[in-house]
Every structure is written in structure tokens, then in C-alpha cells.
Amino acid sequence: MSYNITLIPGDGIGPELTEATRRVLEASGVKFNWDIVHAGVDVMEECGTPLPPAVVESIRKNKVALKGPITTPVGSGFRSVNVALRKELELYTCLRPCKSYPGAPTYYNDIDLIIVRENMEDLYAGIEFEQGSEQAKKLTQLISEMGGQIRDDAGISIKPISEFGSRRIVKWAFEYARANKRKKVTAVHKANIMKYSDGLFLRVAREVAAEYSDIEFEDRIVDNMTMQLVKKPQMYDVLVCPNLYGDVISDLCAGLVGGLGLAPGANIGDTIALFEPTHGSAPKYKGMNKANPMAQMLSGVMMLRHLGEVEAADRVEQAIAAVVAEGKQVTYDLLPEPEQKRAVGTAQVADAIIAHMG
Ligand code: NAD
Description:
Blueprint: E1 2-8, H1 14-27, E2 31-36, H2 41-47, H3 53-62, E3 64-67, H4 81-88, E4 93-99, E5 112-118, E6 128-129, H5 134-145, E7 156-157, H6 163-179, E8 184-189, H7 198-209, E9 216-221, H8 222-231, E10 238-241, H9 243-256, E11 266-268, E12 273-275, H10 294-306, H11 310-326, H12 346-357
Parallel strand pairs: 1-2, 1-3, 3-12, 5-10, 8-9, 8-10
Antiparallel strand pairs: 4-5, 4-11, 6-7, 11-12
Helix pairs in contact: 1-10, 1-12, 6-7, 8-9, 10-11, 11-12
The structure holds nicotinamide-adenine-dinucleotide.
């Protein structure tokens, strides 16, 4: 049997990483029909849109996709293709495991964290009003009539957090915890300040937790959470977060296990799953055969598990772990600064992993 998978190489370092990952996944013995479709900055120049409809159509048809990172211009320009895909396909869960691989450059050696990030709401909803625009003026006026105060030279981003979205993501986190024999779920919030958005998220999280008496539940205010994760990450298990905190905490946890080069992820809906690393397109390394492909490959490992190819997933993951542990055929980011001259390239990491799989 072979699996129909949508493959989106992305831009920046994406094409090199997805190529290295494709080779490793094929070496696992699992058969794939790759439906290769393009999105991102290069496509924008050619097609006038960074997300041609063929990309979404392919994912809808195949139900499973592997995606490289895609650049989002900072401050102006087109909106995030990554966020658009999550919204368009209703991929409401972002699942990001952060796990220690011995040999990675980090102060911690026993981390096994799962971040469950709400993927559709919060400040990521894309409801924004530009400084000086008619809409911003109207909204400022309306808010002032309701007793609030916004300076008239403000830009405005709206933070919606719904009961439906909160319940759906917290339930997902508890179901994941139960299915994967996890002991504790921690809800992350700032409900002391944002009483009606984060406060709602926390209230719903408490209600859902009451339905899962077999799993421990606690909550943490997000600023305290970041400190606790740096000081004693071993105390935590599954973290369930609204969108923005989930984004920030994902990178923090990636740092705990040795960097973004080892942090995979998945965007999951009811019927569709799209696998991509936590990191971005690192444009400064584009085309240099320099970036670490392991986060992209570990996203591929998550995809293999999703497809039920557990044995192949284990073999690929063990080969990646062995290459990290040996420390000989690794990219610059997995080496201490003085040793970075002996780093190998993206493609050579793939070769080493394939050789380990025999
Ligand atoms: P980034 O993740 O691309 O890079 C952050 C840092 O990590 C950089 O120093 C980079 O050199 C390093 N890094 C990242 N991936 C690496 C890898 N595989 N191997 C070695 N080093 C690696 O974040 P950024 O610089 O903030 O963003 C760059 C672009 O990526 C932006 O346009 C951003 O919007 C986009 N982005 C896309 C996604 C996605 O596609 N899902 C996610 C995050 C950021």
C-alpha cells in the first residue's frame, strides 16, 4: 500500500529540509505518492498569491500533508500562509512535543513535554485595524461610548477566545493525555488580567478537567509558567494553551531540548492533519545546506504514527536519536560554538540517518 500525501516544500530552508525528510521517510520502507504543491514567497512572485487554491484542494483530498516552513513578511505584506492553512482547513489543534535526545546541546536531559496549542482564535484570529483607518476610528469611538479608552493613534488587534474553541482544545488535550498515558494537564493563561478572554479559557478548562478524574489538572499564569519551565521543566507534562502563549512557549520548550532543529509539530483537525516543524523559514540559511532537518524529519515521524506506521516511525526516530547521540554527522546548531566548524550539512544528516536505518 502507498499513502497519498500532500508535500509542500515551503520557502527559505523549507525545500532542503523537506527533500532530506522525503529521502529518510522513503528509506523507512513505507511507500508514498507525493502530491507536491507550492506555497510561499516564491509562489507569491509568480502567481500573485502565496497560497494558490490547488494547495488547499490537494490537502483536502489527501487528508495528510507534510509542510516545510513558509515566510511571513514582518509588519506589512501578505498575511501568514501558515495561519491561513490552519483556519481554512479547521486545524484547531497544534501539537508540539519537546523531548530530550541525549547528545543535544542543553542543560536538561530528561524533558518530555507536550504542548497543545489552540490554533484558530486569540490574537492570531487576524482581526486587526490599522492605525488611522476608518474602521479603527469607528471602533475607537464605539469603545469610548462603552466606557473604554483607546488613543486615536492606536492600531488595534482583537483577541477573541470562545467557550466552544476553549472546550474543544482542552478536551483534545485531556483525550491526548489519556490515550498517551500522560499524568497531568496544565492550562496556561493570564486570567488575572484578561478576565473575559483568558478567564473564560480557564473556567472552561476547570470544567473539562472535572470530567477527567484520572488525570491531574492545574493552571499556571503564563509569565510564571515561562519561569517554571526554565527552572524545573520536569514538573510538567501536557500544557494546554491559547494560541499566542502556545506559540511563545513552543519556542521556549524547543530551547530546553537543544533548539528549534529538534522541535517537530502537527496541525490537526477532525479529518485532516498537516505536519510541520515549529521553526520558521530561517531565510538567512536558504540554499546553504546548513539548517538542521531533524525537526522536519521528526514531524515526518509524527506523520508516520498518524498513518499507523508505528514500527517505521520508531525506526526513523531511533536513527535520528543515534545520529544526535554520536554527534559526528550533525548540523552546526547541535554542536558547541567552538566545534561548529566540523558541522555537516542538511543532506549529509539525511545520509547519516539513512545509513543508521540500514
Ligand atoms: P525561525 O524559526 O526561522 O528562526 C529562528 C532562529 O532559529 C534563527 O536563528 C534560525 O537560524 C534558527 N533555526 C530555525 N530553524 C533552524 C533549523 N532547522 N536548523 C538550524 N537553525 C534553525 O524564526 P524567525 O527568524 O523568527 O522567522 C523566519 C520566518 O519564518 C518568518 O517569516 C516567520 O514568519 C516564519 N515562520 C514560519 C513558520 C511556519 O512556517 N510554520 C513558523 C515560524 C516562523
